[in-house]
Amino acid sequence: MGSRRVAAAVALAAMAGGGLGAVTLSPAGASAAVSTSVVTKAAAASCSTGKYQKQVEGYINKLGMFGKTKVDGKQSAADCKIIIKFQKRYGIQPAAGLAGPTTFDVAKRLASTKVAACKPKKSGYTFCVNLTQQTSWIMKNGKQFAAPTVVRSGMKGYRTPSGTYKINKRTKKEWSDPYEVWLPYWQRFQGGKGFHQTTTYIHDKWRGSHGCVNLLPSDAKTYWNVGKIGMTVKLIGRRPGT
């Protein structure tokens, strides 16, 4: 096994939450055994039953976008594939199919989001944000246009305020002087606050923005393509702890 293949195998095992255990990387003769062992452990870890298996199954079914799981609290190959698809969509790492706390938290927040609570304009587009659930979605002509997705708003001391605003500036790549970082797909709606692609792992609970609404890369592009100057932004609720 070449060094690149060994590294890839080790990385695969690490992502799955396991390690190499008692496997010894001996010369050429053991390479096949190492590869088989790592892949087997990765597969077993990714399709094992997670602590929040039944809850995640139920929430994913309620969302109705990823396929139908059997809500029995027992992992199956089909359930694993659906959960991986869910994890990849919302940037959960590792996307290995395990129903852990982050997957549970994201699924619960999304399934609990009531899009009608935004009370959007009856015509045109509205960007909606539920600060309590840390979710966002897009409405068009009073109806859902883009399903709720995850966001991250201002942390303690930098609370993102609820209210109704208008997009007043759009820049595909904005430089932040105070924090010395590029903000991709920037759409400002109030003061120095706006939507932009996240610059760190969005699911780090202890993190938060300095008042902006952070979006996953794919969502930031969607919002950019829909947004325009003067478009309505509605933020409801309040992020817990702020």
TrEMBL record:
CDD domains in UniProt: YkuD_like
Pfam families for this protein: YkuD
Active site: 196 (proton donor/acceptor), 212 (nucleophile)
Pathway it works in: Cell wall biogenesis; peptidoglycan biosynthesis
Signal peptide extent: 1-21
InterPro entries the record matches: LD-transpeptidase (IPR050979), LD_TPept_cat_dom (IPR005490), TAT_signal (IPR006311), Transpep_catalytic_dom (IPR038063)
Keywords of this entry: Cell shape, Cell wall biogenesis/degradation, Peptidoglycan synthesis, Signal, Transferase
Domain L,D-TPase catalytic: 125-236
Record flagged with keyword Magnesium: no
Protein known as: L,D-transpeptidase
Native source organism of the sequence: Paractinoplanes pyxinae
Taxon lineage: Bacteria, Bacillati, Actinomycetota, Actinomycetes, Micromonosporales
